[in-house]
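idk why but the lab printer keeps eating my pages so im just putting this in chat instead. protein + WT7:
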Amino acid sequence: MAYPYQIKSLEDYQQQYQQSVIDPEGFWANVADHFYWRRKWDKVLDWNFKDPDVKWFTGGKLNITENCLDRHLGTLGNTPAIIWEPNDPEERHRVITYRDLYNKVCQFANVLKNNGVKKGDRVCIYMGMIPELAIAVLACARIGAIHSVVFGGFSAQSIADRIQDAQASLVITCDGAFRGNKDIPLKSVIDDALIGCPSVKKVIVCTRTRTPVSMIKGRDLWWEDEIKQVETMGNPPCPAEEMDAEDMLFILYTSGSTGKPKGVVHTVGGYMVYANYTFVNTFQYQPGEVYFCTADVGWITGHSYIIYGPLSAGATTLMFEGVPTYPDAGRLWSIVDKFRVNILYTAPTAIRSLMGYGLGPVNHKDLSSLRKLGSVGEPINEEAWHWFKDHIGKGRCPIVDTWWQTETGGIMITPIAGITKEKPGYATLPLPGIQPILVDETGKEVTGNNVNGNLCIKFPWPGMLRTTYGDHERCRTTYFATYENLYFTGDGCLRDEDGYYRITGRVDDVLNVSGHRIGTAEVENAINMHAGVVESAVVGYPHDIKGQGIYAYVITERQTHDPELTKKDILQTVSRIIGPIAKPDKIQFVSGLPKTRSGKIMRRILRKIAEGELDNLGDISTLLDPVVVEEIKRGRL
Ligand code: WT7
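predcted complex ->
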């Protein structure tokens, strides 16, 4: 059997789960035994959640790319590792076998070495969804450089913040990226970002769109020229750097409740074991299956479930450059049809938006290859769940509603495809190794079923974050200080009569817009950069397609003569500072904000108004100026 640790039945799940709680070290050692280690670990786990200090597989030596590539060459050399579908359906797709991928990764790893990149150096990757993005990521891992992938939708300012925080020495980008009918000028955005980034010595630019770019002498290099250099050297092999299990693999920035995104750090050994275990089990991956995750590699879903999970399992992973609605709303179904996709992993926001086009784009597409479906990133409403089940899965494919986070590295609570009895809207049960606990505001455990609480995890798992880059104290206060000895997820959660978990959404000031995580404080900071703005407050509200929309209350310096123009201007400011994904859906100009006597904005009230619950605002008598509430209510959009 390909994966001896693959769960086979509900009884097997229960048994593995019990085992993982009684003897976590033995449980994970058994899984880890099926990977290639240069040297086995001395100790499986050392931990405390106080500092926090968590170490898995201490003393173990390995390289994740030897597990994703080298070890498959004998058996899967000619098997597709990556199938790539371009944005334009008229352009030819690419199939990259494990042998090809190995060669390309070694080649580009040598390019990085030729440009002075060493183990431990940080490399920022800002590219579109082309195979070279996966190659760049794996090439970093091969030589022990720490990659920091930044999603192609972030602005120059956001990139600069991330590069400065990580002190990256090299950037890998493209001339541009195709997404739907857009052509995003990645290199020119990088040029703007690098004005304030003296740590960056080299920029490698991969050709994709042939958009004209300006190259800076001594700094900017073409990917293709650098590859030629390595070819001239006779394509030498690139031995994998020997890494400690706890060496950093990557940094991925994510939003929190403060204004500044934090660099979540994952390490080599534990992350590899966890990404693989959760991939193989959640999707019940069988050798030969074609697996398609529609996420972008710029998010954790892409890291764990386009690249590391599937490749470490020797799977065939489909990478799609474009968007679900281009050239029409049947694109995902055409791709399923074209490549006989067996497993489709996507986001509720995509499902909801495609539902809006009716069944026209679905009809006449052959979806009979599909066996398993997955959802990720935000709560899936029942309507979307049923549409996915009935019209895409034709009633015969299980759906796995996977709950997890950038910080968890991999899937935590989810049905196991075809094994766990599913319930729409529920992430159902924890995977083996995961010990969820619900607590009330005071940190007291909420026991029994049919209860609500804040979702925490009480025992470490191999894929968990180790720190936030350059600021361990921030990691402690954000995740481990709210409740003693627990990892706090930031999510509210319900445990129903069957002991099933349903995630109810964030309980902090973090929004989930189309599955993208955005901090309200970040958006406020961006709005406040606008010269005419005095103060702003941002909250989320239910949005039919995006899940949550962004509602901004803004105080301007003086009455604006042309409110529409000012709105447009504010949107542009937010786009420039964060990126288009953070643009408010609604901007309401107000003359004041509801504040307590100590000056704190009462977000609860603003949230209620944005949601349209005008009669249910609760106690407003403690407000400094209760009158503003009336004005805000009247002006509600
Ligand atoms: C937040 C994490 C997990 C990778 C993509 C997002 C929300 C995620 C679900 C789900 C309900 C979900 C949570 C979580 N979330 N999956 N299946 N049901 N909510 O990763 O950007 O780190 O965001 O997304 O609120 O905390 P992320």
